[in-house]
């Protein structure tokens, strides 16, 4: 998920989209589509433009089993008129569509969880997205409206089909339902399910450098579902090896060739993915969130890191996980930032396909295998 824009364009993220001019948006950038970029296994690419998320950010996208893109993000940089409310939250669009007007999938309102109504369009300011068991899950972890938690979209096991506007969005039972205005310790971003009863949630921290080292929830949260009660409960939070709040410095050259340095500290985690291993463990890959001293003006632009950790799937208490540490796989260069991480399983090379075909005719086959590779974007 990105922007249909050239490089080095200032403040495109708050621009209007071509099909939506938000009342009161002070951003002067040229109206710019939010765009899904798809790279296929044969190297071909496809770009799908959308008018969604005008005035703000498109943040994540998943290609559903029904062939549609499901997207999340936030809209609105000004007064947030009625059109903006329909361009935020969960959206769907067909890959390669010539029509940039996506379809909104349901809306959430804090009154559903017994809280006093606030700015309804900002209740659906989502950051993370995953599809597990053919069910969409999204997260909210920023802003002063709504509830910072994990949500289920629609009916379990069924991607939305008809009646999209009426698709239910509900917070997961057992997770916090505190107003974001008062929530100072739960900031979910990425989410990944190891199975139907084990959920990992990335908590990015509050973005304040002085708070990072003492934030008990920042890092990787593990949640388990009680199938009898239907309630999720927090098992533990993995932090060791993240060095929360400890400053590191990246040096390099900017676009003009001038040398410089940039200091930041890990504040938590943002996007994550994972795999279940044959030995009963899971490996989680994550992109860190950062905090800095404020001199840069945008903590989201700090050079961050890709990290990984192994966890035992069956463990449910902090006392069982001594010695589990995050390893740093990569640190972004000066002037760069990682936005996501994915696992890629390579397809067989042409020579391998030929050997497989020969094997079907009784001539034998030798298959070459490669380990999945991590790709950061």
Overview in brief:
The chain is mainly β.
Layout of helices and strands:
Elements: E1 2-3, E2 34-39, E3 45-50, E4 58-63, E5 69-73, H1 82-85, E6 91-93, E7 103-104, E8 128-132, E9 135-139, E10 150-153, E11 169-171, E12 188-195, E13 198-203, E14 219-226, E15 231-238, E16 247-253, E17 259-276, E18 281-291, E19 305-312, E20 327-331, E21 341-344, H2 350-360, E22 373-376
Antiparallel strand pairs: 1-2, 2-3, 4-5, 5-6, 6-7, 8-9, 9-10, 10-11, 12-13, 13-14, 14-15, 16-17, 17-18, 18-19, 19-20, 21-22
Q: Trace the largest sheet across and list its strands.
A: 16-17-18-19-20
Mean pLDDT: 89
Number of helices: 2
**Which percent bin holds the helix content?**
under 10%
Rg to the nearest angstrom?
A: 21 Å
Span of the ends, CA to CA? 10 Å
What pattern of helices and strands is seen along the backbone? EEEEEHEEEEEEEEEEEEEEEEHE
What are the segments in which pLDDT stays under 50 over at least 5 consecutive residues? 355-377
The biggest sheet, with number of strands, parallel, antiparallel or mixed sense and barrel status, is: 5 strands, antiparallel
Coarse structural class: mainly beta
Q: Determine the strand fraction and express it as a percent band.
A: 35-45%
Globally, the shape reads globular
Q: Please tally the β strands and state the result.
A: 22
């Amino acid at each position: 998920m990105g922007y249909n824009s050239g490089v080095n364009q200032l403040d495109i993220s708050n621009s209007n989209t071509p099909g939506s001019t938000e009342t009161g948006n002070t951003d002067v950038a040229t109206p710019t589509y939010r765009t899904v970029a798809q790279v296929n296994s044969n190297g071909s690419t496809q770009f799908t433009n959308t008018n969604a998320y005008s005035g703000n950010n498109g943040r994540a996208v998943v290609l559903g089993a029904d062939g549609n893109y499901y997207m999340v993000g936030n809209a609105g940089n000004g007064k947030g008129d009625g059109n903006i409310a329909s361009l935020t939250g969960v959206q769907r669009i067909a890959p390669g569509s010539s029509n940039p007007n996506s379809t909104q999938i349901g809306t959430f309102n804090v009154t559903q969880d017994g809280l006093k109504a606030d700015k309804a369009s900002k209740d659906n300011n989502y950051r993370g997205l995953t599809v597990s068991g053919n069910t969409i899950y999204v997260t909210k972890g920023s802003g002063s409206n709504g509830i910072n938690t994990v949500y289920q979209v629609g009916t379990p096991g069924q991607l939305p089909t008809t009646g999209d506007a009426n698709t239910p969005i509900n917070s997961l039972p057992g997770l916090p339902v505190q107003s974001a205005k008062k929530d100072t310790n739960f900031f979910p971003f990425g989410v990944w399910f190891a199975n139907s009863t084990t959920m990992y949630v990335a908590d990015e921290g509050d973005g304040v450098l002085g708070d990072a080292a003492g934030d008990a929830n920042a890092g990787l949260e593990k949640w388990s579902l009680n199938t009898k009660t239907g309630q999720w409960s927090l098992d533990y939070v993995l932090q060791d090896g993240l060095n929360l709040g400890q400053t590191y410095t990246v040096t390099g050259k900017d676009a003009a060739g001038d040398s410089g340095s940039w200091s930041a500290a890990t504040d938590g985690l943002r996007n994550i993915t994972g795999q279940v291993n044959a030995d009963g463990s899971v490996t989680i890959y994550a992109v860190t969130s950062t905090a800095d001293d404020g001199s840069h003006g945008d903590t989201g632009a700090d050079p961050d890191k890709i990290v990984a950790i192994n966890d035992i799937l069956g463990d449910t208490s902090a006392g069982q996980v001594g010695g589990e540490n995050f390893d740093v796989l990569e640190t972004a260069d000066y002037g760069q930032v990682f936005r996501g991480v994915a696992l890629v399983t390579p397809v067989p090379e042409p020579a391998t396909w030929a050997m497989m075909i020969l094997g079907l005719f009784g001539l034998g086959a030798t298959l070459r295998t490669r380990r999945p590779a991590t790709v950061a974007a």
